[in-house]
């Protein structure tokens, strides 16, 4: 994925990273390193902050078809449906979109359910594994 969007590719340390404006305290994800996006703010310095590890499902849906170009995928590979989850992070006052962890379907989710961010694999080859983030129901970890 994009460098600087998360930290700790393994376990408890895995967190999405955003930035917070020192003038107005607005938090941004994806991170913003140039200016405060709040139109009411005259701007301040932007400081990196880890986002909440847990949030609540705000909305969700499934992707049952291969998106058209410019989406990159192997047209010869069988398409596997995936689940998208919009998660509200209350402390940051924002909603972050991401895929559900493998094996989590729309039938496993409900609006308001607590979920946590976990590392996932976006793609891999013999030399590199590209890490991304997934959302997983908290109940599934117990």
Please characterize this protein's 3D structure.
A hairpin with a 4-residue loop joins strand 6 (82-89) and strand 7 (94-100). The protein has a 5-stranded mixed barrel with strand order 5-6-7-9-8. Strands 1, 2, 3 and 4 form a 4-stranded antiparallel β-sheet that branches. It is built from no helices and 9 strands. By secondary structure, the chain is mainly β.
Keywords:
5-stranded mixed β-barrel; 4-stranded antiparallel sheet; mainly beta; 142 residues
Give a brief rundown of this model.
The chain is an all-beta fold. Helix content is 0%, strand content 43%.
SSE layout:
Layout: E1 6-7, E2 15-21, E3 27-28, E4 46-50, E5 54-63, E6 82-89, E7 94-100, E8 114-124, E9 129-137
Integer-rounded radius of gyration: 16 Å
Order of SSEs? EEEEEEEEE
Task: Round the mean pLDDT to the nearest integer and report it.
Answer: 88
Q: Largest sheet, order of strands side by side?
A: 5-6-7-9-8
Give a count of the beta strands, DSSP E runs of length 2 or more: 9
**Number of distinct helices:** 0
Helix content: under 10%
Structural class: mainly beta
Shape: globular
In this structure, how is the largest beta sheet organized? 5 strands, mixed, barrel
Q: β content, as a range?
A: 35-45%
Q: Low-confidence spans: pLDDT under 50, at least 5 residues?
A: none
Distance between the termini: 28 Å
């Amino acid at each position: 994925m994009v460098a600087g969007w998360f930290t700790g590719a393994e376990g408890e340390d895995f967190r999405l990273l955003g930035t917070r404006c020192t003038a107005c305290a607005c938090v941004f994800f994806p991170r913003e390193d140039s200016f405060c996006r709040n139109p009411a703010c005259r701007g301040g310095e932007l400081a990196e902050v880890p986002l909440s590890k847990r949030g609540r499902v705000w909305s969700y849906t499934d992707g049952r078809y291969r998106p058209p170009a410019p989406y990159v995928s192997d047209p010869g590979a069988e398409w596997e449906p995936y689940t998208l989850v919009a998660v509200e992070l209350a402390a940051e006052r924002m909603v972050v979109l991401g895929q559900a962890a493998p094996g989590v379907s729309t039938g496993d989710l409900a609006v308001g359910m607590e979920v946590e961010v976990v590392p996932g694999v976006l793609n891999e080859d013999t030399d590199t594994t590209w890490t991304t983030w997934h959302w997983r129901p908290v109940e599934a970890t117990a």
